Amino acid sequence: MIPLETLSSIINLAIAMSTPLALAGLGEVYSERSGVLNLGVEGIMLMGAFTAFHFTYITGNLIVGYFTAILVGLILGLIKATLSISLKVNQVIAGMGIYFLGFGLSDFLYRTIYGAEYVTIQKSIQVPIPILSSIPVIGPALFKQYPAIYLTYMLLPLAWFILYRTRWGLALRAVGENPRVADTLGVNVFHVRYLAVLFGSAMAGFAGAFLCLGVVGLFYENLTFGMGFIAIGLVYFGKWDPLRMWAGSLIFGTAWSISTFLQDYFTKAGYPTATYFLLMIPYIVVIISLIAVSRKAKAPASLTIPYTRE
Amino acid sequence: MGLEIKFIERELHPIMYIIVPLGAFSLAFLCGGVLMSWAGVNPISGYEAFISGAIGSPVKFADTLVRTTSFLLMGVGLAFALRARVFNIGAEGQYIMGAIVGTWVALLLQENLPPSITIIASLTMAMIIGGLWAGFAGYLKATLGINEVVLTVIMNWLAFKLLQWLLRGPLKNPLSEMWPMSPPIQAKIPVIISGTRLHLGFILAVLIAIGGYFLMFKTNYGFKLRVAGMNPDAAKYAGYDVRKIIISSMILSGSLAGLAGAIEVLAVYHFLYEGISIGLGYTSIIVALVGKLHPLAIIPSALMFGALYNGVVYLQSALGVSYTLSKAMEGMIYLFVLISEVFLKYKIRIIRR
């Protein structure tokens, strides 16, 4: 039997690992719902992570780190939006450009400023919520977390509500499904798409910042290990629904967390190389889950198609 | 009332296809210079080091051609997938898989068989595994409609994790305790100019690029592939099996990436290690796109990126500028090419309505 404390820490880590995916995925859901595929998420996350690291290191203030990361996300998002919406560049290609830029620039800036060594910063600390955190197992797993995670708990249901139950959400979905009709009904397709892409990129910057400040506590090359792309995969898995996407990110986080705990187990049992084998599992889980839901996944009809007014 | 951007298409003079990428390179170099001076390096001496590192001596130029080899093979392969409108972002993983299997086969056979047979077997198996690795993603796209970008990127990470594990497990060199690497490979692809590292693989890559040109523009298959990419509905209407085209273009591009991986091991390093790829597969996408997805145009494109890559690596050792400068510059070249093409192809008018 697994001791309850271990179970609780497995869930705790699973949630922490799933949060950057959920945040970036949420941004991508909105962006894709408006009809714009943003493949630059990974690059934006990396720039967000670096920016958050740098400004937290300079100012010693995590809040500054988070806000500058969101700002950098917005700047990269503006480039992406201009390319995809106004200049109508192929969205896959434009997204890859943002990815390369973020990937190269974040590491170049880090190495130029900090050199080859790893510099650690004061990580975000876990803040227990009174009463709730004293529930056995679930309490320490869910309610002894980083503040950004509590924000995520609120953000995702709110995003779901806005998407399906408000006029804004209706406009967003209409633009993604049939921009011409939305335009006829008086929705400004370009405004909606710009806002959606900017929101998505800001969320990617935030996700990168959380990965750096909440989970890792330092910055290094390729810190995101494919998380931005996995988040896009989870959007497909979640069929463009924020809550389903969140569920997907929790599955991935759990796979990650379990393999991390098994690592310790195998290392103690004398099989240290098994660690690396286990690190393949989360990626296999994503591939299998993508196959499992693929038949029913139907993308917004105008996804990747630029809109031109007649 | 609002502002409206109108696009009016215009004819493009063929010479622009050369001027545009060169212009984008120049702009990116300008930005690279700004980054360098910020990093405390005089950009002029920086670019002097850069040029001498890329083409400064016959040996260094040969090294640039060695680097060009993998870009060329992967770029030509990717041109087929991208032309068929299959966004294969997985060259990185296919390259790693090719390197793994190429190494494995070479290690198994080199004891008992002559090097030539070992090399041929190793390269063939690498192509097969690269083709399967990519074909799997192509199959899932063609039959289940799973987004190939997401799938191939995740498979890149899977391949990398597999590599990390194998180097510490089954493919571990027992003599190397500190640094995970495979045992050495004796079956080496021959060098064509002694004193340099330029190997036969480069010639092979150029031949494959030429062959790729014929396949793409002079055969029925190439025609179908281009039609399927430009207008999938027309291709379906004409009775082409679009699924088959998707899968086969992926297999083709994956097998060339796998070949590139095995060549890198058998010709350059002679052992497998974790840093075998470091994003070469991602760069190859830019190589293919700057080369306009035309196998012959990809030759100079691969050469430009080979020079960029080696120049920056030398810059790092000479002046301490991080080699990831090349990654940032790649991203900029790429974005500048994209933007300048839009402005060249279209007259842009801003209309008030």
Fill in the keyword field for this structure.
heterodimer, A: 310 residues, mainly alpha, two-stranded antiparallel sheet, 13 helices, 2 strands, globular, B: 353 residues
Q: Overview of this structure, please?
A:
The complex is a heterodimer of chains A (310) and B (353). Chain A is mainly α and 310 residues long. The radius of gyration of chain A is 20 Å and the shape is globular. In chain A, helix 2 (41-59) packs across helix 9 (189-216), helix 10 (227-237) crosses helix 11 (242-268) and helix 10 (227-237) packs parallel to helix 13 (281-293). Chain A has helices spanning 4-33, 41-59, 62-86, 91-114, 138-142, 147-165, 167-177, 179-184, 189-216, 227-237, 242-268, 274-278, 281-293; strands at 127-128, 144-145. Chain A contains 13 helices and two strands, in the order ααααβαβαααααααα. Chain A has a domain at 4-124 and 151-225. With 353 residues, chain B is mainly α. Chain B has a domain at 62-298. Chain B has 13 helices and two strands; from the N terminus they run βαααααααααααααβ. A two-stranded antiparallel sheet of chain B has the order 1-2. The longest helix of chain B is centred in the middle third of the chain and has 30 residues, at 115-144. The chains are: A mainly alpha (310), B mainly alpha (353). Chains A and B meet through helix 3, helix 4, helix 10 and helix 13 of A and strand 1, helix 6, helix 11 and helix 13 of B.
What is the structural class of chain A?
A: mainly alpha
Helix coverage percent of chain A: over 70%
* Major β-sheet profile of chain A: 2 strands, antiparallel
Number of helices of chain B: 13
Overall spatial form of chain B:
globular
Radius of gyration of chain A: 20 Å
| Proportion of strand residues of chain A | under 5%
Radius of gyration of chain B: 21 Å
Strand content of chain B: under 5%
Structural class of chain B: mainly alpha
Number of E-state strands of chain B: 2
Uncertain segments of chain A are none
Report the principal-axis shape of chain A: globular
